[in-house]
Every structure is written in structure tokens, then in C-alpha cells.
Amino acid sequence: MATTFNVVVCGSLVPDPLQTLEPIQGPTGPALKNEMMLPSVLDPWAGHALYEAANLAKNTPGSKVYLLRLGPKAKLQQLMMTIAQKVPFELVCIDGSASGFMDSREVAAALAGAIDKIPGLDKTKLLIFGGCSSASRDAGTTMQMIAEQLGIADVFLGVDELKIQPDGSFRTLERIEGGQYQVSTCAGAPAVLGWATGNLPEPPNNPQVGMANMRAIMPALQKAQAAGLKTDAIKFASVELPKQQRQTRIVKDMPVEEIAKEVVAWIKG
Known about the structure:
By secondary structure, this protein is of the alpha/beta class. It is built from six helices and 13 strands.
């Protein structure tokens, strides 16, 4: 019997990085100035995870891709108009804040709960994809906490390559220090993978795929449940843009140890 997978891709929208992002202290906590007016894009790392999931499903017939999104419904609808044309998927969305000031523990709990409620999901064939990082809530802990809450022991982070073996096992390449990779072999699903950049380019737009996706996307958006995030787990004393400071001094033949000491002293000062 051929191996098939149910691939759930966790991701969210983020403000377009070409825009000026100015943090402010809002009535309910830190926020971005005019956040709801800023154009949004798919989180880049979540995008890599989605394209890798679609490629996996294409090469393992019978597999299915779910795109699990947490964000404001109005902005998700705008974003889906472009993402829907990239790859086939079934949308599962949660209505809630996509702010980078959210607690990753609460985000992980909301995502894990939504995965549990996906109808007909075979958890023995479950692969959960997501970004190893994020352009907004970059705590680097969300995927691990999703795995913990779902009782999944096999977690791979910084993944650049996934190869499925004929027996259903798979091999991953995970980024480690020094530009090297750690090669891991897993017996099979379930597993959680946090993707780095992968190896695939962004797929071209396909209007036929877009039309097929949109038939299910609009009902999914209308049925989106509120995430119920409390937003009070983390307290921010203040938020502001980092100050730019530059001090240049050219020195020849200075020992590395002395350079390190000088840098540390400058940071402390």
C-alpha cells in the first residue's frame, strides 16, 4: 500500500516588510501603528513550508494539504486571493490577532486545538509543517509547543530537505552551525517539521488552482472560530524603534581576544 500523508501547514500573515513598521503602545498593549491598514503577505517561512507540503502531496498520491491560519478574518480573505493560486490546499482558519506581540504559548495552544478538530484527520499519517522562524512572532518555540500539546515526539527544526523512503520513513536535513547539516531518519508519521528555506522556488500563479481553492476558502473563512487569545500573558513596559548608532575605529593586528573584550565593553557601556 502506498504511503500517504495528511500535511497541516501552520502559518500566518505578516505586514509587508517593505512598509514602515512603527511600534506603539495601544489600549490593550503593544501594537503596530495603523496595523490593520498595512498590506499583508504570507509569512516567508510559512510559505516555504506550504510549497514543500504541496510538493510532498504531489509526489505521494492520496496525500492532502491543510493550511491552518491564525489571523483577522478580513485580512486573511485579502491574502487568500493571491495564495490560493499557488498550490492546492484546504483552508482551516482561526479568527484572532496575528500581532508579533502575541505569546507563542497561547498561539501554539490555539493551533494545536484547531488541528485536533479537523474532521477526518488521520493522526497516524499526520505531518505538521511550519516555519522554524517567523517574520512576526519570532520566538522560535511555537512548533515545539504544538508538538508537545499533541503528544508528538519527533520534531525537526531548520529543515531544508525532506525525502520520503519507499517504506514510509523519511530523511531530513536540518541546519546546524558552520553551514553544515544534520542528517536524521524518522520511522514515519506523526512528526513536526519547522522549515528553513527549503529547496523549492515559489510556484507560479495558476488560475485553475485558485478557482478550485476559493470554492472552499470562502465558507472556511465564514466558519472561522475566534481564537480566544487572552493577550495578557506577556507584559511590555515599552516598545520603540531601535536607535541607530555607529562608531568606527580602524585598528591593525589587534588580537581577537582584545577585539572581543572591546566589543563586550562597548555593549555594556
